[in-house]
Amino acid sequence: MSQLSFSSFDDALLVRDAQGRYLPASADQILEAARQAIEQKMQRGAEFSSPAVVKEYLRNMLAGFEHEVFAVMFLDTRHRLIEYAEMFRGTIDSASVYPREVVKAALRLNAGAVVLSHNHPSGNPEPSQADKALTQRLKDALALVEVRTLDHIIVAGSDTVSFAERGLI
């Protein structure tokens, strides 16, 4: 999606269209602008010093989607961000995730660790059995190439669930 240009008028967000006119921004445009601002703020090298900072970052990146998105934060050995990547997109209640592709990306980026994440558009952050099985498969695959899986965070609106905090990783 292209860069959006926003202005504020009478407490309404406006977006400039191709003809240069300002129109009310849609919810999707507002969320996209917020994601762009977060990406600019948390550039390569940003240090994630606590689980709370990671959860806030992922909540801002994944909340609001109406379909499942599986994302990976690729980190160096000091847990600084190398790249945030939304790797797989699914339907309203599932996404196909391919461990081979996650491992390839980790190797390409020379990552030392990852934080896995996906959203639950339903609003229920509880991990399913499929979420738990996938996390273990990814953790095992990444361990073969010496990439640590630090956490898997599920985002459901403003709620998050951390596999690490629950002892599931």
UniProtKB/TrEMBL annotation:
* Transmembrane regions listed in the UniProt entry: none
SUPFAM superfamilies registered for this protein in UniProt? JAB1/MPN domain
Question: A GO molecular-function term, please?
Answer: metal ion binding
Where does the MPN domain start and stop, copy by copy? 46-169
> Tell me, what is an example of a GO biological process annotation in this record?
proteolysis
Q: Which keywords belong to this entry?
A: Hydrolase, Metal-binding, Metalloprotease, Protease, Zinc
Cite the Pfam families for this sequence. RadC
InterPro entries linked to this entry: MPN (IPR037518), RadC_JAB (IPR025657), UPF0758 (IPR001405), UPF0758_CS (IPR020891)
Which named protein is this?
DNA repair protein RadC
Species assigned in the record = Thauera linaloolentis (strain DSM 12138 / JCM 21573 / CCUG 41526 / CIP 105981 / IAM 15112 / NBRC 102519 / 47Lol)
